Amino acid sequence: MPTSLKDTVTLSNGVEMPWFGLGVFKVSEGDEVIQSVKAAIRNGYISIDTAAIYLNEEGVGQAIRESGVPREDLFITTKLWNTEQGYESTLEAFETSLNKLGLDYLDLYLIHWPGVDKYKETWKAFEKLYKDGRVRAIGVSNFHVHHLEDLIRDAEVKPMVNQVEFHPHLTQKELLAYCKKEGIQLEAWSPLKKGELLNEPVLEDIAVKYNKSVAQVILRWDLQHGIVTIPKSIKEHRIIENADVFDFELTAEDMEKIDGLNQNSRSGSDPDTMRVGF
Question: 45 an active-site residue?
Answer without folding.
Answer: no
